[in-house]
Design brief:
2 domains; alpha/beta; 7 helices; Rossmann fold; 181 residues; two-stranded antiparallel sheet
C-alpha cells in the first residue's frame, strides 16, 4: 500500500529531522501488519527553488497514494492543510493524527468568549475522513481502509450550503452582511 505522510518537513520541527517519516511509517507497518511504501515529500528531488515544481511533485505523490496520513503536530505548516484538500481533490482517504492536548484537539478552548469543551479544529475534523488520537488508531484505520468512504473536494460546498440553509438566518453578524437586512 502506498502512503503519503503529510506533516512538518523542516528539520527544526518537533521531530528534529527531515526524515521522521521513516520511523513513523515503520511503526505503522509494525502495528498494521501491512507493507507500506512511503511517498515521502522530504525525499523528492524536485527543485525547491521552483515552487510550482515542488508543489507539482507533492501533488503527484498524493495522486499516487492509497492513503494520506496527516500528522497534525502543533508546528505543522500551511502545506499540511493544503495536502488534505489536494487529497480530497483526488478522492483519497485522509487519516489525521491529532494528539489530545495539541492545538487541533483540546480539552477546553475559548474562542471569542465562547467556551468549547472537547475542541476539535473545524478545518481538520471537517475535511479529514478519520481523526485519530494516536498512532495505534491510525494503524487500525489503515487495516480497515476499505471501510473509509473518502470525502471529496465537494465537502467544501456541501458544508457551506448546509450552513446557509440551516444557520445563516440565525447568524446576527453574517446574515445582514449577506442579505442586506
Amino acid at each position: 500500500m502506498k502512503i503519503y505522510v503529510a506533516g512538518k518537513v523542516s528539520k527544526d520541527s518537533v521531530f528534529g529531522t527531515h526524515y521522521w517519516r521513516d520511523d513513523f511509517v515503520k511503526k505503522l507497518e509494525e502495528l498494521s501488519g501491512i507493507k507500506l511504501t512511503s511517498l515521502d515529500p522530504a525525499r523528492k528531488r524536485a527543485d525547491q527553488n521552483n515552487p510550482e515544481e515542488a508543489f507539482g511533485a507533492d501533488v503527484f505523490m498524493i495522486s499516487q497514494a492509497d492513503v494520506v496520513v496527516v500528522y497534525l503536530s502543533d508546528d505543522i505548516s500551511v502545506g499540511g492543510s493544503q495536502e488534505i484538500l489536494v487529497a480530497k481533490y483526488y478522492k483519497k482517504p485522509v487519516i489525521g493524527l491529532a494528539p489530545p492536548g495539541g492545538k487541533f484537539h483540546q480539552k477546553n478552548k475559548e474562542i471569542f468568549d465562547q467556551k468549547i469543551k472537547n475542541y476539535r479544529h473545524p478545518f481538520v475534523y471537517s475535511t479529514c475522513d478519520v481523526v485519530c488520537n494516536d498512532i495505534e488508531a491510525v494503524a487500525d484505520n489503515i487495516k480497515n481502509l476499505d471501510k473509509i468512504k473518502p470525502k471529496t473536494i465537494e465537502i467544501i460546498k456541501q458544508l457551506a450550503d448546509k450552513y446557509e440553509k440551516e444557520n445563516l438566518k440565525n447568524d446576527a453578524y453574517l446574515n445582514p452582511l449577506v442579505n442586506g437586512s
